Amino acid sequence: MAQVALKNIVARYGSFLAVDHVSLTIESGQFVTLLGPSGCGKSSTLRIVAGLLQPDEGAVEFDGRNVTAVSAAKRNIGMVFQSLALFPHMTVTDNVAFGLRMKKMPQADIENQVRRMLQIVRLDHLADRYPAQMSGGQQQRVALARALAVTPSILILDEPFGALDRKLREAMQVELHALTRQLGITALFVTHDQEEALMLSDSIAVMNKGRVEQFGTPAEIYRAPRTEFVADFMGMTNFLPGEVVDSDSSSAKVRVGSAVFSTSVKDTIAPGEAVKLAIRPEKVMIGHLSAADMCFLEGHIRQITYHGNASRYVVDLPDGGSIIALQQQSPEASLAVGSNVRAHWSPEDIHLFRA
Amino acid sequence: MSSVLAIKPLSNTPASTRRVRHVDKSTFLVLPACIVIAAALLIPLANVLLLSLNRSQPGVIELSSNFTLANYTRFLWSPFYMRVLGKTVYIAAMTTTLCTVFGAILAMAIWRAPQHLRGVIVIVVISPLLVSIVTRTFGWMIVLGDNGLINSTLMSLGVINEPLRLMFTDGAVIVGLLHVFLPLMVLPILTALDRIDPNVPQAANTLGASRFTTATEVVLPLAAPGLVSGITIVFSLSMSSYITPALMGGPDSGMITTLIYQQFVVTFNWQFGATLVAILLAVSLVLVAVILFEFARRTRKWMVRQ
Amino acid sequence: MTDIVQGYSFRIVVWALYIFLLAPLVCVVIVSFNYEPVQSFPPSAWSLRWYGEALRNSNFVNGAFVSAWVALGATLIATPIGVMAALGLWSSSSRFKPALEALFIAPIIVPGLVTGISLLVALSAVEMRAAPVKLLIGHVLIVLPYVIRTTLASLAQINPSLKEAAETLGASYRQTLFEIILPLVRPGIVAGMIFGFILSFDDVNVSLFLVDARTTTLPISVMSYLQYSFDPSVAAISSLMIAMTFVITLVLERMFGLKRLFAGH
C-alpha cells in the first residue's frame, strides 16, 4: 500500500477545464472519497490517478515517486469500474488470475493468491462460473477480488455501486468498509452519494467545477461546511439572505427581513456585508417558541409531507422566501396547511457564508 | 374462435384477443415479402435442386418425375470434377483466412480511430463493395497486368527485366476476392467490437496487460461473434464467386462456378448444371455449419443471451 | 518499447490495407485520362478522349439505360413491400419471427449466381422470355432485403413507448403509423432504397443469366467488352460509375452511417 499524491493537476477537454489545479494527498491505508455532482471532475481526477487519462499539467506521485508518465498497465493499481468490466469470456478464476498472469507470477502462486482472494470475497464455491451466470452482487465481488488480487498500491473505485438496487448497495457498502479496514488498503472512491461517502471514508474531498471545495473528515465536512456549495451538497437546504449589522472577532449580528440573529463566526465579517445563513432542515423546529435564546421567523405552512420517520414542513415567509423543517415525529393535528407558525432554531445551528 | 372475436374490436377488448388482432396485422404486413421471396427464390431454387435429380439431357429444360442420382455419381467418380471442387474450397479457404486476419486488423483500426475520422475510414473500407465487381476486376487488371502498376514500377526500379506473370493466376483470383470481400469481414467485426464495454479493455490495461495482450486475449475473443459471422459470409460468397475467377483466373483456375456457367450457357446441360449448383450449396452449407457449431460450442457458456 | 514497435507495425499494415482497398479504383480513374489507346501505367499523355469514346459506344449507353430503369423499377417495387415486411416483423411477437427473419435475409445468403440460375430455369418453365421482366424480378430480390434491413435498423432505434404513447393519446393504428413511426424511419427507408439501387445497378451475378442479346445491363456489357478489347474507354465508363456511387455513398454515410447496413444479424 502506498501514499498517493496529486500535485496541481489540470485536465482539459478542448476549452473545458475538467480538473482545475487539484492537489490532494491520500495517506497510506486511508480511504478517501471524491464526492460531487456529475461533471464536477471527480471521474477525470480518478482516471488520472489510474493512468487512464493524462493530465495537461501537474504530477501524480506514488510514495514520492513521480508516475505521471507511467502507463496504467505499469502503475500497479486495482480498479473497480462502474460497469464492473469483468471479462465475460473468462471464468471467475481466470478473471481474478488475469492481473497476476500479466505480472508473470508462477502458476502455483497465482493459484494460491486466487484461492485466497475468492475466500476473502466468499466466492470460492463459484470459481468456475462465468460472469453472466452470477448475480449482480456476486459480479461486484469478483470485480473487487480481481482488483485486489494484484496487491495494488491503491484501490480505485469508480461509483461501483451506482447500478445496484438500494438493499444490495447497502450490503456492499458494509462489506467494502469491512474489507478495506481489515486489509489496510489505500483506496480512492468516487461517488455522488453523500451518505455513501460519509459512511465509507476516512476523508472526503468535495469537488465542484473541477476544484476541491473542501477536504476533511466526514464529520468536518458534515458539521462545518466551508462553502455554500458544500453546505448545499451535504443537505443544508435552507439559505436565507441577510446583512451583517454588527460584528467582532467571534460573533456577528445578522438581519434577516425584520429579525436580527446573533451567531458565532470564525473570522470577522464587516458590518454591511451581504451574507447567507444556512440552517439544516432537521434543526428547524415548528410550533411554539420555548427557549428565550432561540432565533425564529414567522410564516404560514404551505405544504406538509410525510416521510415515514419524519415530517417535512414548508413554511412561507412574509418576504417571499421559505424555510423547510424536518421533524422526527408525525404531523401534529394543530399544525395544518395554512396555519401561522414560528420556525425556530438555536443560534449555534446557523452557518454563515459570504453571499 | 378467437379470430371471430377479433372482428369486432371493443373498447375494452380482453388482452388475449387484442394480441390476436396484433398478430393478424403483422401477418398481413409480411405477406407480400414472403410471397415475393417464395415465388422468385425459394420455389425456383427447389425446382433447380429437383432438376439435378433428372437424367441429364442437353437441351431439355422441363422437370420430369423420373428421378435418379446419376448426375451425382458422375460428379463423385470424376477426378476432374473433384479436383475443381477441391480447388474451389482451397481458394475460398485461402480468401477467408486472409480476409479474417486483415479484416480483424482493419476493424480494430476503425474501432480505435477518433470518432470524427470514422466516417471517412468506413467509406474507404466499404468503397470496393459499392463499385461494380466488373470495375474492381478491371482495376486489378491495371494493377497486376504485364504493363500494369506493379510490373512497370518494378521494371523502372530495375528490380526485374521481364514483367512478372501476376494476372491470370490463382494468386490474382485470391487477391481479387480478398478485395471484394474484405469489407464484408470488417463490418460485422466492427459491430461486435462496438458492443464491447469500453471499460473492459481498460480494465485489462489497469491489470498490467499490454495493448497487444489486451487485443489478443480480451478484445478479439469478445469480437468472436463478428468474426464468425464474417467468416461464414466470406467463405460462402467466395465459394460461389464467378466473375473474379472468370476474369482474373488462369486456364487452370476454374472454380465450380465456371463449370456451372458452362453447363447452363454453353452446353445447355441444365440437369448436370443443377447438380453442380446443389453440390456447391451443400458443401458451403456443411462447412459453414461446422464453423457455426464449433463457435457455439466454444462460447456457449459465457455468451449472454439477451 | 515492444509496445511502440507493435504500434508502428500495426499502423503500417493498416495503411497498406487502405492502399490495397483504394489502389485498383484509383488506377481505373488515372487510366481513364490516358491519351494512348493501349493501357500502360502510368499514362504518358493525358486526355478526355476516352470519355467521348465511352459515351459514343452504343452498348455502354444502352446498357446504362437498361441498368438505370431496372434498378429504379426494382427499387420502387421492393420499397413498399420491404417497408411493410419490416413493420410487420417489428411489431410481431409470433414464434415464427426467427423463421421470417431468416427468410428475409435469404436473398442475401443465396449466392447471386444461384439466384440467377434458379430464375432462369423457373422463368423458362413458365415461358417467360422478356429480358426486362426477368431482370426486374431478379433485381427486386436484390433490393428487397436491404430495404428490410435498413428499415428494421431504424425501427430498432424507436423507443417502443412512443407507439404506446400515441395510442394513449387516442391515435388509431393508421395514425400512429403515418404520423409517428414512418416519419421516424424515413432515413432508414431512403438509405435502403439508395443502397438497393446501387447494388442493383452494379449487379452482374444475378443478371448474367437473365439478359439476352438485345437487353443487357451496363456492367455486363462492360464485362463482355473487356473480354475482347482493353482500351481506356472501359476505364472511362468505369470511372463514371465510380463517381456516381461515391457521390451517393457520401450522401448515404452522412444520412445514416453505412456500417449498420451490412453488419451483424
TrEMBL record, chain A:
<keyword id="KW-0547">Nucleotide-binding</keyword>
<dbReference type="InterPro" id="IPR003439">
    <property type="entry name" value="ABC_transporter-like_ATP-bd"/>
</dbReference>
<dbReference type="GO" id="GO:0015697">
    <property type="term" value="P:quaternary ammonium group transport"/>
</dbReference>
<dbReference type="InterPro" id="IPR017871">
    <property type="entry name" value="ABC_transporter-like_CS"/>
</dbReference>
<dbReference type="InterPro" id="IPR012340">
    <property type="entry name" value="NA-bd_OB-fold"/>
</dbReference>
<keyword id="KW-0813">Transport</keyword>
<comment type="subunit">
    <text>The complex is composed of two ATP-binding proteins (PotA), two transmembrane proteins (PotB and PotC) and a solute-binding protein (PotD).</text>
</comment>
<dbReference type="InterPro" id="IPR005893">
    <property type="entry name" value="PotA-like"/>
</dbReference>
<dbReference type="InterPro" id="IPR050093">
    <property type="entry name" value="ABC_SmlMolc_Importer"/>
</dbReference>
<feature type="domain" description="ABC transporter">
    <location>
        <begin position="4"/>
        <end position="234"/>
    </location>
</feature>
<keyword id="KW-0067">ATP-binding</keyword>
<dbReference type="GO" id="GO:0005524">
    <property type="term" value="F:ATP binding"/>
</dbReference>
<dbReference type="GO" id="GO:0015417">
    <property type="term" value="F:ABC-type polyamine transporter activity"/>
</dbReference>
<keyword id="KW-1003">Cell membrane</keyword>
<dbReference type="GO" id="GO:0016887">
    <property type="term" value="F:ATP hydrolysis activity"/>
</dbReference>
TrEMBL record, chain B:
<feature type="transmembrane region" description="Helical">
    <location>
        <begin position="120"/>
        <end position="144"/>
    </location>
</feature>
<dbReference type="GO" id="GO:0055085">
    <property type="term" value="P:transmembrane transport"/>
</dbReference>
<keyword id="KW-0812">Transmembrane</keyword>
<feature type="transmembrane region" description="Helical">
    <location>
        <begin position="89"/>
        <end position="111"/>
    </location>
</feature>
<keyword id="KW-1003">Cell membrane</keyword>
<feature type="transmembrane region" description="Helical">
    <location>
        <begin position="164"/>
        <end position="187"/>
    </location>
</feature>
<dbReference type="Pfam" id="PF00528">
    <property type="entry name" value="BPD_transp_1"/>
</dbReference>
<dbReference type="InterPro" id="IPR035906">
    <property type="entry name" value="MetI-like_sf"/>
</dbReference>
<comment type="similarity">
    <text>Belongs to the binding-protein-dependent transport system permease family. CysTW subfamily.</text>
</comment>
<feature type="transmembrane region" description="Helical">
    <location>
        <begin position="28"/>
        <end position="50"/>
    </location>
</feature>
<keyword id="KW-0813">Transport</keyword>
<keyword id="KW-0472">Membrane</keyword>
<feature type="transmembrane region" description="Helical">
    <location>
        <begin position="218"/>
        <end position="243"/>
    </location>
</feature>
<feature type="transmembrane region" description="Helical">
    <location>
        <begin position="272"/>
        <end position="296"/>
    </location>
</feature>
<protein>
    <submittedName>
        <fullName>Putative spermidine/putrescine transport system permease protein</fullName>
    </submittedName>
</protein>
UniProtKB/TrEMBL annotation, chain C:
<comment type="similarity">
    <text>Belongs to the binding-protein-dependent transport system permease family.</text>
</comment>
<feature type="transmembrane region" description="Helical">
    <location>
        <begin position="135"/>
        <end position="156"/>
    </location>
</feature>
<dbReference type="InterPro" id="IPR000515">
    <property type="entry name" value="MetI-like"/>
</dbReference>
<feature type="transmembrane region" description="Helical">
    <location>
        <begin position="12"/>
        <end position="33"/>
    </location>
</feature>
<keyword id="KW-0472">Membrane</keyword>
<dbReference type="GO" id="GO:0055085">
    <property type="term" value="P:transmembrane transport"/>
</dbReference>
<keyword id="KW-0813">Transport</keyword>
<protein>
    <submittedName>
        <fullName>Putative spermidine/putrescine transport system permease protein</fullName>
    </submittedName>
</protein>
<feature type="transmembrane region" description="Helical">
    <location>
        <begin position="102"/>
        <end position="123"/>
    </location>
</feature>
<keyword id="KW-1003">Cell membrane</keyword>
<feature type="domain" description="ABC transmembrane type-1">
    <location>
        <begin position="64"/>
        <end position="252"/>
    </location>
</feature>
<keyword id="KW-0997">Cell inner membrane</keyword>
<feature type="transmembrane region" description="Helical">
    <location>
        <begin position="233"/>
        <end position="252"/>
    </location>
</feature>
<dbReference type="GO" id="GO:0005886">
    <property type="term" value="C:plasma membrane"/>
</dbReference>
<feature type="transmembrane region" description="Helical">
    <location>
        <begin position="66"/>
        <end position="90"/>
    </location>
</feature>
